[in-house]
Amino acid sequence: MKFRTTLKLLAASIAAAGMAASAQAADVKFGFAAPLTGPQSHYGEDMQNGLNLALEEANKKGIKVDGETAKFVLVSRDDQADPRVGVQVAQQLVDQDVVGILGHFNSGTTIPASRVYHEAGLPQIAMATSPEYTKQGYETTFRMMTSDTQQGAAVGKFMVEKLKAKKVAIIDDRTAYGQGLADEVEKAVKAAGGQVVRREYTTDKANDFTAILTNIKGSAPDAIFYGGLDAQSGPMKRQLATLGLKAPLVSGEMTRSDTFIKLAGDAADGTYASLAGVPLDKMAAGKDFEQRYQARFKKAPGVYAPYAYDGAWNMISAIEQAGSAKPEKYLPALAKLNRKGATSEHISYDANGDLKEISVTIYEVKNGKWEMVETMVSQAN
Known about the structure:
Layout: H1 2-25, E1 27-34, H2 41-61, E2 64-65, E3 68-69, E4 71-78, H3 83-95, E5 100-103, H4 107-120, E6 124-126, E7 141-143, H5 148-161, E8 167-172, H6 176-191, E9 195-201, H7 210-217, E10 223-227, H8 230-242, E11 249-251, H9 258-264, E12 272-276, H10 286-297, H11 305-322, H12 327-335, E13 338-339, E14 347-348, E15 357-366, E16 369-379
Parallel strand pairs: 1-4, 1-5, 5-6, 6-7, 8-9, 8-10, 10-11, 11-12
Antiparallel strand pairs: 2-3, 12-15, 13-14, 15-16
Helix pairs in contact: 2-11, 3-4, 5-6, 8-9, 11-12
Protein name: Leucine-, isoleucine-, valine-, threonine-, and alanine-binding protein
Organism: Achromobacter insolitus
Family: Belongs to the leucine-binding protein family.
């Protein structure tokens, strides 16, 4: 009798284990990494919220994957915007058996981490990043936003043609993002007939730019471009005003934030910043996205949330089309993707994994608020 009872208990345990394995098989885990602590954490949180909203909506649809109803799960890691930590985090995510990667945020973490994901055969959809990301020849790399190459070209042209800046000074923070964007701006300024009269360098930890700006002042530039974060561009704009430099500060999307305005204070007005993409209220389904985001998180979405949202849906859509979450099966569907999303009616990738639709918007701070100046939309060659 005791032997039969033991057999029944063993059988029940095996059945329970089988049910648990079956339930776990329905989990489709996406890896996510970005700065979730430190001065860039507001970027990471914005991105994470957009991803979570997409996954929550997908789970309500009851999408079938590999014969079962999928439960999409986000496995998050803080890469601290540090390349060394980014690689460690990448290996951790691979070891978690994720089926795809949504991130990283910074170029400096994205590029080295992408090698880890490529070796593991995992598709990766990162944010904008420097051009090197999709020039590595990896079939696994894709973007959520227009690349920094395309953005830099638009900014350089804008400064020379619209701001009439014939003499431009350029500063970058020596990160992969800041230097890459500044390099593209320099090329575009020269191509448009402008002159780069000074090229200076700082770091993404600096807060005193007096010496650099004094050197620049002697060159009498018509505009100053900064490639780097709002944590630096905010104090930099205040110091520009203190030194009496009248040339407008122009920067990239990292400066296009409320944090910059807080840090720059009364000096913020007259600053220009580019942003890959179009304003939220001009997006294909931007207003609808904003309402759903507000309802879920009780605050307005930041710059990166809608692009992260679309990045997640791009991966989910490819998996749904392939009927499988196995990377080798859905990767071809991701490469051939053509869908309407929140940010654009035509989301598709070229052979490198760059978005085919190029859109860049220039903003200016007026009366303490960012206001759109113009949007440029075109198709990649």
